[in-house]
Amino acid sequence: MITRMYVVSGMNCDGCVTTVKNALKNIPEVIEAQVHLSEPQAIVSMREEIPFPELQQIISESGHYSIAEIEEEKVAGLSAQPQKKGFNKIFGALHAKKDCCK
User: Fold this and answer.
1) Does the pLDDT value for residue 80 go beyond 60?
2) 19, 30, 43, 95: which one has the fewest Cβ atoms less than 10 Å from its Cβ?
């Protein structure tokens, strides 16, 4: 099993997270996909390596989203960064009137 982390751009709400997660889970090689809005990223476990351009195309076709690879050296640093608590509540409230996922 291979696990990779990607930064996901363009997600603004839980609906976006669900869309990206479903797009990843529909790929036959994907065993599990975790997608997070608080740290806009996807953690993808796969049976075999999926070429990055293929993943990128699938994500962009699912909506206005894009992904970027996270280098292994940076992965450890991401979990050590403090999260901005309350930001997503404020942003979510401001964003609630937009129709981002449809």
Assistant:
1) no
2) 95
